[in-house]
Amino acid sequence: MKSGLNFLIAAKRCEIDALRQLSLTSALVNVTGRLVHGLQRERGLTNLFLGSQGTRFAEPRRQQITECQATEAELRRCFDSLDTQAAHLGHGARLFSRIAYVLHGLDALPALRERIDTQVWTARDTTEAFVRLIAGLLAVVFEAADSASDPAISRQLVALFNFMQGKEFAGQERAAGSALFASGRADSAGQQRLLHLIDSQERCLQVFKEFASDELATLWATADRDTVDARAELERLRRVLCTAADGSPLDANQSQPWFDCCSLRMDRMKTVEDRLADSLQRLCEHKTQAALTELLAFEGIHPVAVQPDDALSFFHDPVPDHVSGTSPAQAYGVQLDRSILDLVQDQARRLQAVSDELDTVRASLNERKLVERAKGLLMAHRNLSEAEAHKTLRQMAMNQNRRLIDVAEAVLSMAEVLPERRR
Amino acid sequence: MKSGLNFLIAAKRCEIDALRQLSLTSALVNVTGRLVHGLQRERGLTNLFLGSQGTRFAEPRRQQITECQATEAELRRCFDSLDTQAAHLGHGARLFSRIAYVLHGLDALPALRERIDTQVWTARDTTEAFVRLIAGLLAVVFEAADSASDPAISRQLVALFNFMQGKEFAGQERAAGSALFASGRADSAGQQRLLHLIDSQERCLQVFKEFASDELATLWATADRDTVDARAELERLRRVLCTAADGSPLDANQSQPWFDCCSLRMDRMKTVEDRLADSLQRLCEHKTQAALTELLAFEGIHPVAVQPDDALSFFHDPVPDHVSGTSPAQAYGVQLDRSILDLVQDQARRLQAVSDELDTVRASLNERKLVERAKGLLMAHRNLSEAEAHKTLRQMAMNQNRRLIDVAEAVLSMAEVLPERRR
Asked: What InterPro entries does the annotation carry (chains A, B) (predicted)?
């Protein structure tokens, strides 16, 4: 018959299993980030290629595709190595479901590239296609952040996810700005989209700053400061793009400097992202190691035979002499029942604190969840496709000059008075 | 290399694993409920036994102990059958940690009973001891409710937990009232405690009504109505107990009718609780079966070779033709890539909806979590034991005539201005 000590150990094993899964997940997040970066570059080069009617950028694009294919193969191996037979992962079903979606997107990439080779698809359509695939990849990172069972790791994943999402907004800004310059004419819809992307980007970076370690937040601030010239140029071009009167001419020659300084910014972001991913990996290993050490200490405990009087201590008030300290398990190889009870209560208290902190960290992911929920509502009630629903929300936000999350909240609070779905 | 379909299936397998664990958990909850009921009876009989200086109730108490020992053995077997090696359970660590605590309490029961046999412990101390052990058992049920991955099952578990918790408050009310009658004298502290227990009980039953199925909510309402005489008698005795002036005499002969009508109420509650537990078990089986059927349908899919044009459908808007309907997987043994993509998107959308609904259901468990957090804060900052912290909160609630949750929230919002912990 299993004892309290057995279950104390079992609980620790559960924690270790969850941490090991987090190590796997963070490796997955790392490769996903590299593929996202590759696809962002490919999207940029594809836009330039299509913008030049296929006369330029064919070679850099081809090279980028080769690189993307290598990273894609690596990511597919990563997916394969996830144990799909076992449901060890906390939110396994959701993660696997996101992966299934991404795999469909990756399967469709060769056909998309063919359409681009033959210039059958427009720059606008291909941009949308890349945006959708990258959104699918980011959703994998989001699930990882949402399912992490350790608050410190969860914080890092939230920081990383927001940084990656911010970088993707920067990538979309590059594409939107390039399209505006290439068209040679300012139009207010394009300008509004640009402003929206800049705003979304900044909010993501704000969340990143809140959740990243001081070291990494500083790294990004420094990277941003060290390239003050490039930043000034970016801001100048942003101003040119956003303040030109509707219909007034834009200098198509600015297209290249715009692309270059946007790309420089994204490359700098990638450096910080790599450091974030590294530090996440190390944190997972460190936490797993620490938990393993504690497990060994627990397993080394040989409880002395329980005396009835000792057992009764369950009904007395424990002295909380190590409420905030580290576990005393390491100190004793042999423990009285009283001390094991202390360990059990410590563990329960710590797990409760962990769960409370996780709730707080996860709340920061709510913005995205609210937007998704509002989209779902629009799809169901207005019979819209996902893309239409997203566009509707974005349009409402632009028209009302409000943030996407505010519009999403308004939509959700209107849920009860929305008309029935038309069939 | 694994395909989107593989991960669609893997996600379904995760769901099934989680549902199977829920079946195990709900069996565990069932036995836990029976042991709680047995211990509540033992607590009642022990109070009568001690109140009569050991001259009466020795035999019924002995019989009740035998029954409790049998249920305890069953629960220990249930614990043993949980796979402690694998961390399949979502919140495994927390559940195992609660079980470890309960096992310490069960180990201490024989010593407690011995102290009662020899009348070394007072009625008050033994009541507190039983209250603590039962609270540990209810915490196991709470974790089960908090970790359920299916909203319908989670709702039932929330209903069941609140019903069990309400029944425990009823049991504590019986003990508190018995103690008052036995003392032969009204005292305002005891009266306040009684009022508090009645209030807590009613709030638990309110949550139960919100979350139980109509059928079970009606079952309880009917049970309550059918025994209107007993209820009237309970209310009369409650009035006698609560309105007597501080220090005025109470008729000790009322002790037996009070005990009887409280016991009748608890037995009626047990009938409803059993039905709840049964219905939970059936729901788990039904859900598992439905998911297995869907899995079989998914596994029967033989995707036809993907044509490039079909793959491109990833980048087009899906027609949400079965957003709210059932999965069409059963309809086809062979599917085009387009249809599998639809299944993948359906799954993702459904899992998102499930997760949103779970958040809502779990929010109802927040009251308890807030109280626990406030207790933890008091323990850390004021150097209190858990029991002292709980008593402090309860006392604050009584003095300020506020609900426990309101006091807990006030304490938490004061966290930043609380003095440093004295060491």
From this structure: ANTAR, CheY-like_superfamily, Nitrate/nitrite_sensing, WH-like_DNA-bd_sf
